[in-house]
Amino acid sequence: MSYVPPLRDFAFVLDEVLQAPQALRALPAHAECDGELMAQVLEEAGRFAAGVVAPLNAAGDRDGCRFDNGEVATPSGFARAYAQFCEGGWPALACAPEHGGQGLPHVLDCALYEMLSAANHAWTMYPGLLHGAYACLAEHGSPALRAAYLDKIASGEWLATMCLTEAHAGSDLGLLRTRAVPQDDGSYRISGDKIFISGGEHDLTGNIVHLVLARLPDAVPGSKGLSLFLAPKLLPDGSRNGVQCTDIEHKMGIHGSATCSLRFEQAQAWLVGEAGRGLAAMFVMMNAARLHVGAQGLGLAEAAWQRASAYAHERRQSRAPVRPAGTQAADPIALHPAVHKLLMQQRCRIEGGRMLACWTGLLLDLAEHDTDTVARRRHQERLEFITPVVKAFLTEQGFQCASRALQVFGGHGYVVETGIEQYLRDARITMIYEGSNEIQAIDFLLRKALADDGRRLEDFLALVQADALHAKGSEFEKQAALLLQAAQKLRQSAADIAAGMAANPSLPYFLADEMLHLTGHLALGWMWLRAALRALAALDRDPAYYDGKRDAACYHFAFVFPEVRQLFDVIDGCLATGVPTIPSDRHHHAAQEAG
Questions:
Q1: CB of 75 closer than 8 Å to CB of 53
Q2: Which class does domain 7-137 fall in?
Q3: pTM exceeding 0.85
Q4: Active site (annotated) includes residue 593
Q5: Which of 434, 438, 514, 563 does the annotation list as catalytic?
Q6: To 5 degrees, how large is the angle CA 361–CA 363–CA 368?
Q7: CA distance 192 to 566
Q8: What pLDDT does residue 192 have?
């Protein structure tokens, strides 16, 4: 399970496409952050991911976690790797210096977690919620909670969980039953059962900080009645709290990640934020987690593509239709157009996704540290707009890329020995957890694209159009015209859906997925246009590298971007003929029984 960190591509994305060092140096918090520092951090991060975490991936998948009487043992080597992770200061990378953090940009943290996920998705699940928990407590925790827990979380000495899901409720948080009863000393006692809790129990740290959604006795029904609480595994006096792992799930993938069922029995806890506003506090953590899940999909796609590309250049079979001079009777399958297309499909989606993910990470830095209040709010709105796209679009692309990588191996990919099938299994969960992709699409369309009369959508489209107009007269003028057409069509589709909602309130729910994917394709096309223009400008400096970028951009617009046509056709058809009637399963089953 070898992994090569894509450091050259990170440098291209951050330094040239996004010009991140210039943007960061304009922020007082990152005034000393230059390209050289960013490169050094990413080089060390890549070395840790490739040298420490990646070698544990296959064995961790094979051995999985072990559950015994409430205790969970992680796969061999996981605990030592986590100790090294903390020794290197990686949990505190983007945390504030006053809490022991390094105060480095979030965009570097985003790149770090892409590489960690590529190297070992299951292992990365354990520290994956650290920064979200840190941000949640930093913003909503009381002074006492911040003093007691922030430094421990920032250092990674204590890991954290996000306890939302209950068996009967699924994604409908308004149905949660876990109860919190206030005590005379200002604490609370929590009772209830949670499922699907990543890292709910393990042997990596002595303490685990559970952030739990629960309902106070006088809470109103539904999601507005939820409050957020902090319930540690170990109480401040060192005694064990009333939280117990009752089992771990046996899953399709990420076998090395302990997915736990937790029972809270009069567990002592403390309120985080305001009573009845638990979701507002939890969403700080959830949004951070969704960005990391997008990075997971991207990292898994990169790792799978690396293995598929290496195999395709080693495996010889048949004669390629177009043969380079001096090739043998049997050519590497990478020279066959069908396989070459599979590989290029992956590369375009991965490298485009990396640009989008890093842009999102940079937005997080700007939204947090820009000195201009108006600009800071604009960055925050852009971040809120693009987060569901990053989560849903990049995780689906990650799964599809892993599937294409397996296809390159042919029958050898379907057997366990080659290892490629693990990436497909591991990638599948990313489309489900932290809010399923369908939920992301509904949230995106109703609360981001159509809300505020489409102001945030219009802002995003203006960014795309500005760069497309800048490409006029260049080698990529035709591709820029395609972007402009798609942007205008997306604007019109949003307006038509908004107009149709009055007569048919279910309309946006049927078209949310298509609208999110259209926005994702437009975002990737935008990033590839920026990359292409940068490659053209730098072609003389490194012809081999930048010509490769130019060719990849051409390939993206020829073979990937045209997927927008089918999505627009679906929307146009639905708007023209109306939402189709959903067949009744009851009638279908009755017909089967009768016939």
A1: no
A2: mainly alpha
A3: yes
A4: no
A5: 434
A6: 105
A7: 46
A8: 97
